[in-house]
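Appendix C. Worked example: Acetyl-coenzyme A carboxylase carboxyl transferase subunit alpha
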Amino acid sequence: MANELEFEKPILELQTKIADLKEYNEKSDVDLTKEIVKLEIRLGKLEDAIYGNMSAWDKFQVARHPERPTTLDYIPLIFDQFMELHGDRYFGDDAAIVAGIATFHGTPVTVIGHQRGKDTKDNLHRNFGMPHPEGFRKALRLMKQANKFGRPIICFIDTKGAYPGRAAEERGQSEAIARNLYEMSDMTVPIISVVIGEGGSGGALALGVGNQIYMLENAVYSVISPEGAAAILWKDASLAKQAAESMKITAADLFDLGITDGIIPEIRGGAHRNVEEQAALISTVIRKGLNAMSALSGEQLANQRYEKFKKIGVYEEL
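Step 2, the predicted output written as structure tokens:
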């Protein structure tokens, strides 16, 4: 089966067996209903056992699944009247960042998110979801516009990281990310960030300075990829699985550490199994978040954001 993950193989094999039995049952005079029911019960227990005990590396693989929903998959299911806007007014447009205005249950909002490609051609166009400086500057331009007109900002995070190429560095990659962090910290409108896939390094953080930060159950959020961490720590990228376990990159880890505000449940097997249902779960969380912040003034929103990030990484000297 295309795009299958290693830990899912027992499930996929059993699903194939059930499908074959159902097809045979329809075409023959032999009644295999009881056998099919037994196998479906067994499948349910197997899914509970495997999906209920996924390792950090398993979740990382699901977060990078090629069929995992992207920002553009979620936008039409969550928002109405989305109008995409382009360009940073300095250099050009960056297809790795999607940004525009929309309505959410009748409320005007600004929506910004990383965008991966769906195939090789699209990935080249989107630069595999890794933004150049103009992508971050486009995002900031839309954020400033939202701040001016009092529109809440909704960010979807899904990137391996900011593009590390020479051209990006020449155009001020680090400065562009730092500028986003600085400007977002002081905005007077609600900002909700949702990690929908892989949240990698500064490229993710550039859209992650929110009043509320949520992660999908199988999303990951880290300062570096497990492969990169393994290469640096142990000079061996093949130890990525071991690195993933020690880096605390899962939604549960980040919530326990107080970095995120909540975990959005995923459809069993991953968000790609039912995009519409997953979008509904995300929409519910966004709506609750905006309602909770509706009574706060601009100054209170900025202060709450400041205090939230001030608490992250606090340590005690023994």
